[in-house]
Design goal:
This protein is an all-alpha fold. It contains 6 helices and no strands. Helix 1 crosses helix 5, helix 4 crosses helix 6 and helix 5 packs antiparallel against helix 6. The longest helix is centred in the last third of the chain and has 22 residues.
Length: about 120
């Protein structure tokens, strides 16, 4: 039975499941594997902190994702369809694992962040 997102362990489960899909995704996986050449051991803990801070306001994230995405866009053009696909995968993953108020909140927050990144990155 699915429950709501309650704590960091749930955030880690969401992030790990989501990025396991991203790594092999035919539409956007290459941004992570070939263009950014993500070091997953370093990246995943940052994503745990990022989403933990977004959902539970614990202040444990430092970084500037906007700059990273602008740099990535300069290496390989990102389009609105890429952002939409990221959102669809994220929402799908949340819905597979969780249900409840925090699950809905993280999906909405992800959509808002994605829209802002799209606007700031590619105009």
């Amino acid at each position: 039975m699915k429950t709501d997102i309650k704590n960091r362990n749930d955030i880690e489960k969401l992030v790990n499941t989501f990025y396991s899909k991203i790594k092999t995704d035919a539409k956007i996986g290459y941004f992570f594997t070939a263009v950014a050449k993500v070091n997953w051991e370093a990246h995943l803990p940052k994503m745990y902190d990022f989403w933990d801070n977004i959902l539970f306001s614990n202040g444990n994230y430092t970084g500037n994702p906007m700059i990273k995405h602008k740099e990535l866009h300069q290496k390989s053009e990102m389009k609105e369809a890429h952002f939409q696909h990221w959102n669809a995968l994220f929402n799908e993953t949340v819905d597979e694992l969780f249900t409840g108020e925090k699950a809905e909140e993280i999906k909405q927050r992800a959509m808002n962040i994605s829209a802002l990144m799209l606007f700031k990155t590619i105009g």
